[in-house]
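pasting for ref
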Amino acid sequence: MNRPDFSEEIKLQKRGFNFVAGLDEVGRGPLAGPVVAAAVCAVAQLEVKSEKLKVWENIKDSKKLTARQREKWYEILTGDKNIKWGLGVISQKIIDEINILEATKLAMKKALENLGIEPDFLLLDGNFLLEDLNVSQKAVTRGDEKIFSVAAASIIAKVSRDRLMQKYHQKFPIYGFNEHKGYGTKKHFAALRLHGPCVLHRFSFEPVRSLPSKQLNK
């Protein structure tokens, strides 16, 4: 089975792009909670074969890992001095104001701001680029399945968002955010029908938008 590798980053490094950052997001589809993006840049010269780089070779897209595996990879990636990473979190309130696509782009820009270095090339998972940035970019469909830095970004974003939803569960336990992380599961729909939405819900999303306003939970 094919796994993400360094081939795209190595190719770009050979073209003179020293700091290639991969970006991915988590949370475009849920009915509640923020959208979270991560930017990851491997600052090592990736064509140099070393034992350190071999640690990264079995990485996968976050969707193909268990929660425990994602947590393990998160600790490996965020604790590695050869990895720079940044996180961007955009709230459900902003999502409702500017729409989910624009919120996703904003989360990616914030992740880049928090990266700690200035990348000279961006690899984005998906089919869109980031406007108003003076940096070369490439969008790669299913990039999290092909490119190391994008796969790493998907893991960091996923673990970070899941931890946020676990935290929110402590304040709003009736919705089960710790289980479904805000996605539209049967349990979540049932809780919405019974209790109505809370401030963490996205009121521009159906079926939240159609619920009577009197059901709002503060």
